[in-house]
Amino acid sequence: MIRKTALLLARQSWFRKTILGTPVLRDLAGRFVGGDDLPAGLAAVRALNARGIKGSLNFHGMHVEDPEEAARAAGQAIDALRRIRAEGLDAHVSVKLTKIGLDVDLALCRDHLHRILDCAAETGGFVRIDMEESRYLETTLQMFEEARDRYGAGSVGLVLQSYLRHRSGDLDRLLDRGSRIRLVKGGYREPRDVAFQAAAEVDAAFRRDIERLLARGISPAIATHDAEAVAWTRAVQERLGLGKDAFEFQMLYGVKPELQEQLVADGYQVRCYIPYGGDWATHLVGCLRRIPAGLLTRLARPAPRT
């Protein structure tokens, strides 16, 4: 109930204005959100690139029910791909299918996705399709595989969630077809029969998938802020004899920046997921839920200028 209430508040325009008008909250938002529009998101990418970190831009939000809003979101992804190419930035674009119309109409969503991928093919860009709640899993897999076969693995990749029960075969099947996978533990509240609930079970599934992905994947990405999972990934990489540039660590913008910079200093590839515009207040609420209360005051201090 608390989580639902927080997300409901985050979608209200007055709540967003309150954040922007409250210095402590505004500073926190600046740490976890790329900004209100594409120029601000691109500025965040430039600052990260200057520190050796790559970017993945996401016009934030999901579960759009207005066809015009879905079209605007697709247009944002297209504009981002063009600006990334024009400015020579090291960045991808991430999209959620429900942001570009999946809840409105399947054909509409597919059309928007193909428009985005036409632009990616034209600009040499790359688009990652985010995974959402389990009820969208089969449709997301189908649309991704159609897109991969049409545009190639160099243009489109997918996110998979390790905490889902009975879905380990998805990873093997996708790797058999040369898919580019971003692996996460899982980020949605799911029923017990759908997803592992205990942290030990989730961690064990994630470790198994990390090893499989590193052993067989093309440009694999491991998305985690868990220091133990990072250490496990590094150990597997060394055991398999892989170079440090054979894969990427991926993390959320503003979450554990010290770990991100340490990995870069150690020679690893790091990419930050940068939400901007759209429904970014919901992302901020999600980030704040990850932070122990005692750290909020320290995090609210003015961020260093880069």
Beta fraction? 5-15%
Dominant shape: globular
How would a textbook summarize the main sheet?
8 strands, parallel, barrel
Number of domains: 1
Architecture, CATH level 2? Answer: Alpha-Beta Barrel
Please tell me about this protein's structure.
It is an enzyme of class 1 (oxidoreductase). The chain is an alpha/beta fold and 306 residues long. The chain has one domain: TIM Barrel. It has helices at residues 2-10, 13-21, 23-32, 38-50, 67-87, 106-123, 137-151, 168-176, 199-216, 227-240, 257-265, 280-288, 296-299; strands at 54-59, 91-95, 127-129, 156-161, 181-184, 221-223, 248-252, 269-276. The chain is globular, with a radius of gyration of 18 Å. The chain starts with a helix and ends in a 7-residue tail after the last helix.
